[in-house]
C-alpha cells in the first residue's frame, strides 16, 4: 500500500522578494521582454577589446571631466596669482589658467584627477585608432555595417576635436601656441577664413571669448553628440550582431561565443576595472601636461620644444615639412598653400578616404552580399597593404612634428630632418605598401604549405638509413577548415567596348572599375585543389615518421558541417 505524504506547509503565501521586485519592474518597464538580451552572444578575440578600452576611457573622461567642472573657471578675465606655487607668485594670468593651477596644487586630489582626465583622453584616442584599424584590416565594415563605420568615423573626428578643445582650456603657453596654429590654419582657408577666425575667437586673436566658447563645446556639445552616437553605435552592434573570424561551426548565418549573461558581463566588468586601474596608476605616477612649468599664455611668447598631444602631431608634422608656397591672386589676395595644403587639404583627403572606403570597396567589387565573417588581414593583401601604408604616412608626419626635439636630442640638423620627412612622405608609404603585400603573400603561402605538408613541429628524427627529417604534424580538422574556408574573391569582368555594334556608353567607368577590382583582388594565393589535398594527405599518412592524419575528407561545401561542440553558445542572424 502506498501512502501519499504531503509536504509540510512552507508558510509562504507569496512569491520570493526578488521575484516580486522583478514583477513590479516588469509591470512598469516591460523588462521581461528584454530577456533575450541575456542570451546575446559575443565572440571572443583579443582585437575586440579596443572598442571596450575606448568605451571605458570615455566613461572615465565623463566622470573626471564632471569633477573638473566643479573647480575649473572658464574665464579669460585677468587675475594675479597668489597661490602656493611660488614661481608664479604675483604674475598676471587668466582665471582659466589660475584655476587650473589651483586644481593642480590647492584642490585635494585635483592633480590626480586632471592627470587621469588627460591620460584617459590619450588612451581613448589611441584605442579608437586601433579599433578603426582592426575594422579596416578585417573588413568588418562591409555590408551591413557601413553606416556603423560612418558613425564610428564621426566619433573619431569628434574625439580628436574634443581633445584639442580640452587641451586649449587651461590657457597656458603651450595650449595657446596650439590655438595660434589653429588660428593660422583657419585664416588660410580661402574666402571664408577671416570670417571664420573672427567668429571662432569673437574678434581679433586671442580675444576674451575663446576659452568660454571652447568650454561650452567641450563639456556640453561635443561630448553630448559623442555619447548619443556611441549609444547608436553600440545598439547597431547589437542589431547587426557581432562579426567573427572563420572557424569550425562559424558561418555567415550564426555567431558563436559567450552569452551576455553571465559570461560577457563578468568579463567586461572585470576589464572595466582593469582599464580604470591601469589609467589611475598611470595618472598617479606619470606626469602629464605640467601647465605650471609653461606659464600663462601671452601672444608674444612661445616655449621651446612645443608639442601638441600625439593625435594632433601629424598635422603639426605636415605643416612643418611643407614648403612655404604662396600665390598672390590678381587683386591682391594671397592664397597660403604652405598652410592650406598640409593642414586643410591633406587631412581632409585622408579623412575622406577613411570615411568612404567601405563604399569605394563595395563599388569596386560590386559585392552586395552581407558579410559577418571577418577576413584575416593576410587574405586581403591589397587592403592590408593600403591600410599599413596609410598608417606609415601618418607616422612619417607624426615624426616630422617632432623635428625640433629630434634635432636637439640627436644632435641632427633640423633642415635635414625636414628634408627626410619630405622624402619619407612619398617613399615610406610606398615601401610599406610593397613590403606588407609581400608579407601577406608569404603568410598565405605558409598557410597553403601547412595545409599540404602539415605543421612543422621542430622535432628532428633520424631515419634508419641515417637521413634526418623534421616531423610534420597534420593540422587538426578545425585549423584545416579555417584555412580552407577563406573567401576567394572574383574580379569585376572587363567591359565590352560595344554591344551589338553600339558603343558601350559606360565603358570608361567599367574599365576603371575592372582595373581597380583587379588591383584590390590581386595577391590571392589559390586554395589547394582537392586532388592536391588528397595526395598531400596520403603522403603525410605514409610519411616515415609523420603522424597519421586524423582527418577524413574535408567538406568545405558545407561550412556549418563541422561542429566541434567546443563553443558554448551560438545565435542565428
Ligand atoms: C572624449 C571626451 C573628452 C576628452 C578627449 C577630453 C580631453 C581633455 C583634455 C586633453 C583636457 C586638458 C587637460 C589638462 O589640463 O591637462 C581637458 C580638460 C578639461 N576637460 Fe575634458 N575631455 C573630454 C570630456 C570631458 C567632459 C565630458 C567634461 C565635462 C563634463 C570635461 C571637462 C573638462 C574640463 C573642465 C577641463 C579643464 C580642466 C583642466 O584642464 O584641468 N571633459 N579635457
Ligand atoms: C566612442 C567610440 C567607440 C566606441 C566606444 C566603440 C565601441 C565598439 C564596440 C564595443 C564594438 C564591439 C566590439 C568590437 O567589434 O570591437 C564596436 C564595433 C564596431 N565599431 Fe566601434 N566604437 C567606437 C568608435 C568606432 C570607430 C571610430 C569606428 C571606425 C571608424 C568604429 C567602427 C566599428 C564597427 C564597424 C563595428 C562593428 C564590427 C563588428 O560587429 O565586428 N567604431 N565598437
Which key phrases capture this entry?
single chain, mainly alpha, 3-stranded antiparallel beta sheet, two-stranded antiparallel ribbon, 19 helices, 13 strands, 8% strand, globular, binds protoporphyrin IX containing FE, respiratory chain, membrane, transport, metal-binding
Report what the structure shows.
One of its GO terms (biological process) is respiratory electron transport chain. The protein is mostly helical and 573 residues long. Among the domains are: 50-314, Cytochrome Bc1 Complex, Chain C (Up-down Bundle); 441-495 and 504-553, no CATH class. The chain has helices at residues 17-29, 35-38, 49-69, 95-105, 110-138, 146-168, 173-187, 193-201, 210-240, 260-285, 291-294, 313-321, 337-365, 381-401, 403-409, 414-453, 477-484, 507-521, 530-541; strands at 41-42, 78-80, 92-94, 244-245, 254-259, 327-329, 333-335, 373-374, 455-462, 468-473, 498-499, 502-503, 569-572. The chain has a three-stranded antiparallel sheet with strand order 1-5-13. The chain has a two-stranded antiparallel ribbon with strand order 2-3. Strands 4-8 form a two-stranded parallel ribbon. A hairpin with a 5-residue loop joins strand 9 and strand 10. Helix 12 packs across helix 13 (337-365) and helix 14 packs antiparallel against helix 16. The longest helix is centred in the C-terminal third of the chain and has 40 residues, at 414-453. Mean pLDDT is 90; it is low at 545-567. One protoporphyrin IX containing FE (HEM) binds next to helix 3, helix 5, helix 6 and helix 9. One protoporphyrin IX containing FE binds next to helix 3, helix 5, helix 6 and helix 9.
Amino acid at each position: 500500500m502506498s501512502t501519499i505524504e504531503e509536504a509540510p506547509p512552507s508558510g509562504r503565501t507569496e512569491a520570493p522578494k526578488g521575484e516580486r521586485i522583478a514583477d513590479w519592474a516588469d509591470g512598469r518597464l516591460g523588462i521581461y521582454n528584454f530577456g533575450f538580451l541575456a542570451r546575446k552572444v559575443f565572440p571572443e578575440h583579443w582585437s575586440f577589446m579596443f572598442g571596450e578600452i575606448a568605451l571605458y576611457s570615455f566613461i572615465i573622461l565623463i566622470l573626471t571631466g564632471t569633477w573638473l567642472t566643479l573647480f575649473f573657471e572658464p574665464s579669460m578675465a585677468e587675475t594675479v596669482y597668489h597661490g602656493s606655487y611660488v614661481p608664479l607668485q604675483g604674475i598676471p594670468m587668466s582665471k582659466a589658467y589660475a584655476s587650473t593651477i589651483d586644481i593642480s596644487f590647492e584642490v585635494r586630489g585635483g592633480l590626480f584627477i586632471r592627470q587621469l582626465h588627460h591620460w584617459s583622453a590619450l588612451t581613448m584616442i589611441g584605442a579608437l585608432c586601433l579599433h578603426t584599424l582592426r575594422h579596416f584590416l578585417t573588413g568588418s565594415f562591409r555590408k551591413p555595417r557601413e553606416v556603423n563605420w560612418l558613425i564610428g568615423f564621426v566619433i573619431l573626428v569628434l574625439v580628436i576635436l574634443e581633445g584639442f578643445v580640452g587641451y586649449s582650456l587651461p590657457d597656458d603657453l603651450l595650449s595657446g601656441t596650439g590655438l595660434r596654429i589653429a588660428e593660422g590654419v583657419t585664416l588660410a582657408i580661402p574666402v571664408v577664413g577671416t570670417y571664420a577666425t573672427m567668429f571662432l575667437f569673437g574678434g581679433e586673436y586671442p580675444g576674451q571669448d575663446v576659452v568660454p566658447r571652447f568650454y561650452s563645446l567641450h563639456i556640453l556639445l561635443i561630448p553630448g553628440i559623442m555619447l548619443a552616437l556611441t549609444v547608436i553605435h553600440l545598439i547597431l552592434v547589437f542589431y547587426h550582431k557581432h562579426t567573427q573570424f572563420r572557424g569550425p561551426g562559424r558561418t555567415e548565418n550564426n555567431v558563436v561565443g559567450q552569452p551576455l549573461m553571465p559570461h560577457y558581463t563578468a568579463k567586461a566588468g572585470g576589464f572595466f576595472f582593469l582599464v580604470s586601474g591601469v589609467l589611475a596608476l598611470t595618472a598617479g605616477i606619470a606626469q602629464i601636461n605640467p601647465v605650471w612649468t609653461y606659464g600663462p599664455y601671452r601672444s608674444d611668447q612661445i616655449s621651446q620644444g612645443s608639442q601638441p598631444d600625439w593625435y594632433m602631431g601629424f598635422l603639426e608634422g605636415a605643416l612643418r615639412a611643407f614648403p612655404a608656397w604662396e600665390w598672390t591672386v590678381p587683386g591682391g589676395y594671397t592664397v597660403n598653400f604652405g598652410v592650406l595644403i598640409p593642414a586643410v587639404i591633406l587631412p581632409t583627403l585622408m579623412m575622406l578616404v577613411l570615411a568612404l572606403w567601405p563604399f569605394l570597396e563595395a563599388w569596386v567589387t560590386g559585392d552586395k552580399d552581407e558579410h559577418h565573417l571577418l577576413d584575416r588581414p593576410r587574405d586581403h593583401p591589397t587592403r592590408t597593404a593600403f591600410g599599413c601604408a596609410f598608417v606609415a604616412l601618418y607616422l612619417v608626419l607624426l615624426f616630422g612634428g617632432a623635428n625640433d626635439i629630434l634635432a636637439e636630442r640627436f644632435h641632427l640638423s633640423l633642415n635635414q630632418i625636414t628634408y627626410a620627412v619630405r622624402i619619407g612622405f612619398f617613399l615610406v608609404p610606398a615601401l610599406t605598401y610593397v613590403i606588407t603585400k609581400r608579407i601577406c603573400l608569404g603568410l598565405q603561402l605558409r598557410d597553403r604549405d601547412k595545409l599540404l605538408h602539415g605543421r612543422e613541429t621542430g622535432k628532428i628524427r633520424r631515419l634508419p638509413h641515417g637521413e634526418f627529417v623534421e616531423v610534420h604534424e597534420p593540422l587538426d580538422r578545425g585549423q584545416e577548415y579555417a584555412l580552407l574556408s577563406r573567401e576567394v574573391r572574383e574580379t569585376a569582368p572587363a567591359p565590352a567596348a560595344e554591344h551589338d555594334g553600339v558603343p558601350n556608353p559606360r565603358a570608361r567607368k567599367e574599365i576603371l572599375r575592372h582595373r581597380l577590382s583587379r588591383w584590390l583582388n590581386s595577391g590571392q594565393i589559390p586554395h589547394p585543389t582537392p586532388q592536391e589535398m588528397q595526395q598531400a594527405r596520403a603522403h603525410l599518412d605514409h610519411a616515415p615518421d609523420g603522424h597519421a592524419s586524423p582527418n577524413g575528407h574535408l567538406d568545405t561545401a558545407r561550412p556549418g558541417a563541422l561542429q566541434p561542440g567546443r563553443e558554448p553558445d551560438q545565435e542565428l542572424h
